[in-house]
Design a protein that fits this description.
The protein is an all-alpha fold and about 525 residues long. It is about 80% helix and about 0% strand.
Length: about 525
């Protein structure tokens, strides 16, 4: 039975690679291969970035014979990325899965359900930790001669780190489930905790990447800090550097932590799973104003976004991040202006570079806010309810697109104005930044709806299948990033051949035209596909 449950869990993770939910058929081998190749290309790109980061770390610590510090710091980054990638998946996948009640009603021991859920968490943890640890380990083995025993321990560290990240992620998901069960608004709690974690994560990464010189000058202090406060990472570092006793102690500790956490999950799973998955709030009957069908649908979509923590975190984090960046830019505008003039002051057409780069950065931050992409799939098996209403499908799709675009437009407009005015870009500079970012917001909303309809999946068990684990969303995020990188890169490569505002205006027109033709597809073929769901 455990084997069947684990197989089911892994199939849910990779369901989108083999099964076309919209057409209700298995994908062809070619389609599956292309998806895996695209995924492998993205992971290779991330691995290349961490390889470069490892090279910087290697140059700081290895010449000073501080091998263990090198491995300790890289293991910390691997654990941070792994926890970042799988913590909220643990809460959604373990405690809010729609098949929890069904599985618990069957003669299946709870520990088998827990182990199968943890298998999914462990697999995601393995992917995220490998993308950091393998480049770091490979660089070390290539550049520095190592014995067979050390190489074996470095490779076995993948298993240790995977278990450690799984324990941390599962503990985090358990805490969210315990706290959210006792609060009325679970979505606000989850969103607040996530934003704090994301802020800490990005703060650590930015500080780490900007402080290699400081780390080099104070490498002894770094090692003393790890020895004092990072005991488990010290063990990881020393074990990876070849200390067998540290490896044995580390293995015992991680296994002990895993056993304790499993006992806690086993004792609380039934109560938390039933409490978070099936609990419904009782509300008093309220009478509202009469509204048009379109207005009611827009309010429904907007309300659903702000009431679902997973939806906000996976598809709307930029709504919070962008205003924060705008405030920071306004507060430190003098220092930032001094830095810009110090780096780019000799370039002709300096304002054009700033206008284009600022617009591209704003759009990069918003690239993950694909609110419209999962909106159709999130209807789930209850999509027949909205389809049964006396409302045209075009009105439903319009409401979904307008809701997603409007949610993004407010922070984009305010942040773009604040940033452009803070950098003193002038009237046409400010206007072009605002026009470009809003055009991108519309383009992202319409193209997201196209991707959402073409790859609709209303048969999901957990929302993560259409949010965090969605291949289309994963790919779309990188496509938007590539587009914005190309816009900025083309302007830099051409040496600012045209003024920045004119350059942005031209691309804004292109995105508006593309949005128009994509919307025609939504109202034509997209409407037909939606009615077939």
């Amino acid at each position: 039975m455990l084997k069947a449950l684990v197989k089911k869990q892994l199939k849910e993770l990779f369901r989108g690679y083999f099964y076309d939910a919209r057409k209700n058929r298995m994908k062809t081998p070619g389609e599956t291969l292309m998806r895996f190749l695209w995924f492998a290309a993205i992971m290779a790109y991330l691995g290349y970035n961490f390889y470069n980061l490892s090279g910087s770390m290697y140059g700081v610590f290895i010449p000073q014979s501080m091998d263990w510090v090198y491995f300790s710091l890289m293991s910390m980054i691997a654990c941070a990325l792994g926890t970042f990638g799988s913590a909220f998946n643990t809460f959604e996948g373990m405690y809010k899965a729609q098949d929890n009640d069904l599985l618990l009603s069957l003669p299946i021991p709870a520990y088998r359900i827990i182990l199968s859920r943890l298998t999914g968490v462990a697999f995601l943890s393995l992917l995220y930790t490998m993308v950091v640890w393998l480049p770091a380990a490979g660089l070390y083995i290539i550049r520095r001669p190592a014995g067979i025993s050390q190489i074996v321990m470095i490779l076995l560290m993948i298993v240790i780190l995977t278990l450690l990240v799984t324990v941390i992620s599962s503990a985090f998901g358990f805490l969210i489930a315990v706290i959210s069960k006792r609060l009325k608004n679970q979505s606000v709690l989850t969103a607040v905790i996530a934003v704090v974690l994301f802020a800490l994560y990005y703060f650590v990464v930015i500080r780490l990447s900007d402080s290699f010189d400081t780390i080099y000058e104070h490498s002894d202090e770094v090692s003393h800090f790890l020895l004092r406060f990072g005991n488990i990472f010290v063990l990881i570092g020393k074990a990876s550097a070849g200390d067998v006793s540290s490896f044995i102690i580390l293995t015992v500790i991680v296994i002990f932590m895993s056993a304790i956490l499993f006992l806690i999950l086993h004792g609380t799973f039934k109560g938390l799973a039933q409490g978070t998955a099936s609990r419904k709030r009782s509300k008093a009957l309220r009478y509202g104003k009469k509204r048009s069908p379109f207005t009611a649908l827009v309010m429904k979509e907007t309300g659903y976004f702000f009431s679902d923590a997973s939806y906000m975190l996976d598809c709307g984090l930029g709504v919070i991040i962008l205003p924060v960046l705008a405030v920071l830019l306004a507060v430190y505008r003098k220092r930032i202006l001094e830095l810009i003039y110090a780096l780019l002051g000799d370039l002709p057409g300096l304002e054009g570079y700033v206008v284009v780069i600022l617009s591209a950065l704003i759009c990069l931050v918003m690239s993950g806010n694909m609110i419209t992409m999962p909106s159709v799939s999130l209807e789930g098996r209850s999509i027949y309810l909205i389809r049964s209403c006396p409302v045209d499908s075009k009105t439903i799709l319009n409401a979904k697109m307008l809701s997603g675009i409007s949610i993004n437009s407010v922070p984009v407009t305010v942040s773009s104005l604040v940033m452009a005015l803070s950098l003193k870009l002038g009237f046409f500079g400010v206007l072009s930044v605002l026009l470009f970012t809003l055009s991108f917001t519309v383009f992202m909303g319409v193209s997201g709806m196209v991707m959402g309809i073409r790859n609709a999946n209303v048969g999901w068990v957990t929302k993560e299948a259409v949010l965090r684990q969605n291949f289309t969303a994963f790919s779309g995020f990188f496509v938007y990033m590539i587009i914005m990188t190309a816009v900025a890169g083309l302007y830099i490569l051409t040496g600012a051949a045209v003024p920045g505002p004119a350059y942005l205006t031209a691309f804004s027109v292109l995105m508006v035209i593309a949005s128009f033709f994509l919307s025609k597809w939504v109202y034509g073929k997209g409407k037909e596909l939606f009615e077939m769901l």
